[in-house]
Amino acid sequence: MFDGIPAQWHKAPEQARRSPNEAAYVFLSIMLAVLSVPAVFLGWAIFLSVGLMLQ
Questions:
Q1: CA pair distance 15, 12, nearest whole angstrom
Q2: Ramachandran region, residue 17 (left: φ > 0; alpha: ψ -120 to 50; beta: rest)
Q3: Per-residue model confidence as pLDDT tens digits over 4-46
Q4: Fewest CB within 10 angstroms: 10, 36, 42, 55, which?
C-alpha cells in the first residue's frame, strides 16, 4: 500500500550515508573554480606578451 513516500526515495543505509571525503571534494572543487579565474587572466597576459614579442 502507498504510504506517502515514493519507493525510489528509499535508500539502503549504506547508500544514505555520506562519503567521508565529501567535504574535501567540495572544498577542492570550490578552490579549483576560484583559482581558475586568475589562471585564465595570467594565461591571457602571457599569450599577449608573447604575441607582442613576436611582432
A1: 5
A2: beta
A3: 666 666 667 777 777 889 999 999 999 999 999 999 999 999 9
A4: 55
Distance CA 11, CA 18 (A): 12
**CA–CA gap between residue 13 and residue 15 (Å, rounded):** 5
For 18, 20, 39, 42, 49, the CA distances from 52, given in Å and listed in that order, are: 52, 49, 20, 15, 5
| Cell numbers at 38, concatenated | 586568475
Cα–Cα distance for residue pair 6/11, rounded to 1 Å: 11
Q: Which pTM was predicted?
A: 0.55
